[in-house]
Design goal:
With about 400 residues, the protein is α/β, with parallel strands linked by helices. The protein has 2 domains: about 130 residues, Response regulator (Rossmann fold, 3-Layer(aba) Sandwich), CATH 3.40.50; about 160 residues, Histidine kinase-like ATPase, C-terminal domain (Heat Shock Protein 90, 2-Layer Sandwich), CATH 3.30.565.10. It is built from 13 helices and 12 strands. The strands form 3 sheets. Strands 2-1-3-4-5 form a 5-stranded parallel sheet, with helices on both faces. The chain has a 5-stranded mixed sheet with strand order 7-9-10-12-11, with helices on one face. A two-stranded antiparallel ribbon has the order 6-8. About 30% of the residues are buried.
């Protein structure tokens, strides 16, 4: 990963470069002493992070930031503003343009490295996500069986419908994590200022300046607020981790067609998380997961069945309710050598004619463009033909539907 330091002060570039080189950041460092030189570097190098001074001769840092964010090929670059200024309006302008963070001069080693490390982690997460998407794409293989090909296409369509929701679910915690870091930065600066003043007073033996500083700032309130900010940030990080983990568990991209030990309850939980942004504005979810054993199945295919039924439930509920929340209920239990999964909704329900054609390929009650008519036929094939199970549906028009799935334990 490459970091470009753009600053017309050679001393600042040397200090920043040395701090990074002496840390565990493992970054390749490039330097530019002007915005114009930085543009040339960007044309020749694949840059991930930029440490950008705001005030420079020629084009200033804000001008270069605008130029970077106006180019699609550079929009992925994380830009950290480097400034001695304390003007919040100027920094807000930088954030509005697209800056990821800021570092105030003079540089303080520990804080400087920590801030760079945080932004690097964000970039790494983006690269891992891109690699993961690329990995999914490369897993597609050309198969002669048209039905298998259509099953893969239906799965990609389902994930595509949920992609915006997944991104939204990740962006929410990332948003307040970023906000919390900004506030923690301000608090850290307050403590650093107090510490520096204390060191100066220690040299003279007169601690009046330190005393005045501590009287001006309510440090007990700052400490209490910092504890809350750290707790909130930890919750946000855990939320992002849970979503990413659920996405990987759901897709099973590295073993799509492999039979493996599988927990039905965990598979349902992962699928509910993946679909949560689509569900939460339409229906409440109630679950009653029984004590069920692990079974050997093709996990990604079973998850696909759950997703298809949940997406249909959301559609049925949104078709019935305009200004009220519906209800989706998910139950699991053991019955006569089978794990039974019940997925119920109180949506619009189905007519007898629809029920007779429900599992037929290409049959759909949705408008053109909203459905392929393959989801439930593929689900039937996965449960009945590939896993020796059963799938049935009971529905009353205007009242709702119950999908019941039996998967053999042995």
């Amino acid at each position: 990963m490459k970091l470009l330091i753009v600053d017309d002060s050679k001393l600042n570039r040397i200090m920043a470069s040395n701090y990074i080189s002496n840390s565990d950041l493992d970054l390749e460092i490039l330097e530019a002493e002007s915005s114009e030189e930085a543009m040339l570097v960007l044309q020749d190098e694949d840059i991930d992070l930029i440490l950008l001074d705001i005030i420079m001769s020629g084009m200033d840092g804000i001008g270069l930031l605008k130029w970077i964010k106006s180019k699609d090929i550079y929009k992925h670059i994380k830009v950290i503003m480097f400034t001695t200024l304390n003007e919040k309006t100027l920094l807000q302008d930088c954030f509005d343009i697209g800056a990821s963070d800021f570092i105030q001069k003079p540089i303080e080693n520990i804080e400087f490295v920590a801030r760079i490390k945080s932004i690097k982690r964000q970039r790494q997460l983006e690269l891992e996500t891109q690699a993961y998407i690329q990995e999914i794409t490369e897993q597609k293989t050309i198969i002669s069986d048209v039905q298998m090909h259509m099953m893969q296409q239906d799965k990609m369509a389902s994930v595509g419908q949920l992609a915006a929701g997944i991104a939204h679910e990740i962006n929410n915690p990332l948003g307040f994590i970023s906000s919390n870091f900004s506030m923690l930065k301000e608090y850290t600066n307050t403590f650093v200022d107090a510490y520096k003043q204390f060191l100066l007073d220690a040299q003279t033996g007169d601690f009046e300046a330190s005393r005045s500083l501590f009287l001006d700032e309510d440090f007990s309130e700052i400490i209490e607020d910092m504890d809350e900010l750290f707790d909130e940030t930890a919750i946000g990080v855990d939320r992002v981790k849970k979503i990413v983990t659920s996405l990987r568990n759901f897709s099973r991209v590295d073993r799509t067609e492999a039979v493996e030990a599988y927990s039905v309850n965990e598979g349902l939980k992962d699928t509910l998380i993946i679909a949560s942004n689509n569900i939460k504005y339409v229906a409440n979810v109630e679950t009653d997961f029984g004590s069920v054993p692990t079974i050997n199945v093709i996990a990604s295919q079973i998850n696909q069945v759950f997703l298809n039924i949940l997406v249909n439930a959301v559609y049925a509920i949104s078709s019935k309710f305009e200004n009220a929340m519906g209800l989706i209920t998910v139950n699991t239990f053991v019955e006569d050598g089978y794990i039974v999964i019940e997925l119920m909704d109180n949506g619009c329900g189905m007519s007898e004619e629809t029920l007779r054609s429900l599992f037929h390929p290409f049959y759909t009650t949705k408008p053109v463009g909203d459905g392929t008519g393959l989801g439930l036929s593929i689900s039937y094939d996965i449960i009945v033909n590939k896993h020796n199970g059963r799938i049935e549906v009971d529905s009353v028009k205007g009242q709702g539907s119950v999908f019941k799935i039996w998967l053999p334990i042995n």
